[in-house]
Amino acid sequence: RKEVEQDPGPFNVPEGATVAFNCTYSNSASQSFFWYRQDCRKEPKLLMSVYSSGNEDGRFTAQLNRASQYISLLIRDSKLSDSATYLCVVNIGNRGGATNKLIFGTGTLLAVQP
Amino acid sequence: NAGVMQNPRHLVRRRGQEARLRCSPMKGHSHVYWYRQLPEEGLKFMVYLQKENIIDESGMPKERFSAEFPKEGPSILRIQQVVRGDSAAYFCASSPVASGYNEQFFGPGTRLTVL
Questions:
Q1: Do A99 and B33 touch (CB under 8 A)?
Q2: Coil, helix or strand for B84?
Q3: How many Cα atoms occupy the beta-carbon half-sphere of A37 within 13 Å?
Q4: Would you call B100 and A32 a contact, using CB atoms and an 8 Å cutoff?
C-alpha cells in the first residue's frame, strides 16, 4: 500500500467549475500536511498547508481528518491557469530532528477547459 | 533573495559514467533534501542533510549513490556507474529549520538522461 494515495485523474473540468481532490495517508505518525502544485516539467511549489480546523486561501479550501487519515482540496471557480498536477504531501518528521522528509502522492492531474 | 539553485539543469551521461548534481540552498537555509522523480511517478525522498552531516539517508539506493553537504559550497548528489534506470528528474529542496511544519523550497531540478 502506498503511503500517500491519490486519484491520478485526469480531471477535465470547464472554467468556473468546482473540483475536489481527495487523498489518504497510511502513516499515523505523519506530522504535517500540504498540497503542492507541479506544472509540467517544473518543480513542485507549495499551494497551501493543511490544518485540522480546515483552512482557506482565496478559491482554495483544504481539510484534514486525522481520524480517517484523509486530506482534501477544493478549488472553486476554476481558471485555465489552475491546470497542473496537484500533489498531496505529508511530512514524516519528529521533534528530535532525526528526519524531516516529505512523502508525496503521485498527483492528480487537473485540466481546466475553456 | 535567490531561490534554490541546481546545476546543471540537464545532464546526459552514458552508462558507466559518473553524474554529479549540485544544489545551492536558499540563503540562510542549512537543511537540504534530495528527491527523485522517475518518469510518470511521484517524487521520492532520497536523503536529508544538514551542514557536514547526513541526517536521514533512508531513501538512498544502497549502492552507487552518495550525498554530501560540506561546510562551504553546494550540496552534491553523486551517482557512480550510472544505469538507464537512473534517468529521472532530481530535485533539491531546502529549509531554514528542521521543523516539519515549515515549507521546503524546491529548486528547478536536474534532468538526468542516461544513454
A1: no
A2: helix
A3: 13
A4: yes
